[in-house]
Write a structure and sequence with these properties.
alpha/beta, globular, eight-stranded mixed β-sheet, 5 helices, 176 residues, Rossmann fold
Amino acid sequence: MELKDAVALINHPKVSSGPAGAHWADLGAGSGLFSRALGQLLGPGSVIYPVDRDRLGNFPDIPEGVRVLPRSLDFERDSWQTGKLDGILMANSLHYVADKPSFLTLVKSYLNPGGVLLIVEYDSDIPVPRWVPYPLSFSTARDLLATAGFEAVSRISRRPSLFGRASLYSMVAQRP
């Protein structure tokens, strides 16, 4: 996926029209593609914390005035070292979390009231061992987020996956 495709997938007013100087975490940032995409949408003074336990990419294409502060850690077990956040992005990483209800409680504890959870996932509930061990389709994710107490849950976009098994979807939810 190219940067422009990632930007299109996560472009939503709750992201691009958020508070000036917003603080976001990108959990499971990997190569940094979605951190870079997020950087295209956030305003000056914003901070992005790319979090990954295995590797962190580099972050070209980040606009001037947006800071990137990588964190090398396990986002399920370690403290994120970010403080309270205005948004959390999980692009192709929530499908690695087995206990999603407990994890979403943790996510809510890091979000400011009104904070945004932005998810990109495969639209399937069928596991692909090693790569997508705990999948969640859009309908499963919508129900899970509602049960966890998130509000304004909605789909942003959908696109075919390069791997062919299931489409990718993006969605947004808000902490009350």
